[in-house]
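Posting this for the archive.
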Amino acid sequence: MDTALKTNTPFAGGSTRAEARWALVRLHVENDISLAAIARDSGTALRTLERWHAAYRAKGFDGLKPAPPRAERRHRLKPELGQLIKGLALTRPRDSVATIHRKVAELCRKQEWPVPSYSVVWTIVREIDLGMGVLALEGPVAYRDKYELALRRQADLPNAMWQADHTMLDILIVAPNGQPAKPWLSVILDDNSRAACGYMVFLGAPSAMNTALALRQAIWHKSEPD
């Protein structure tokens, strides 16, 4: 492995867009998955992945960060002013661009800075990464559902692939300590038929042991096959 790949490890923080790019690049860097396979499964162009990988090799995680919006480069805004515009656009409830421009103009007049035009503010707001907007305005669950990478495979035949799923049941039982508790259910599903091959009900969070017990029940002969 190249030295740059080992030393330029991403740090906590950074832009959402860079983190999304790293989520793809790391599959190649750390898991040795080919860029062609990542492109096929994620829907990202192969040449784009190659460009991101080259940028990571050259500059590490910083190489994956997007360039400043064109409006900031074109009008030479103060960095703190560009960040203020983005912050206002990513604050719930989200203000209109006209309101954001008015707030920015008031601050600029107080600081005796040049007031950016409405079109400059509008361009900066428009160029905010969509994923960052979803994360800030709708929360991490919405971001995960829309942007988190998932490599999906589907079995062509029964019993070619099983999956384990866990859920907390919406019922209360009496735990051994006499207190009410909600049990967990682990289910082993056949990917092709979606049949439940086995299951395990238990107290406490899902664990490797409970998953193994559910697998054993799925594999074992059933006293009542129906």
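Residues 97-111 form the longest helix (15 residues). The chain has a mean pLDDT of 82.
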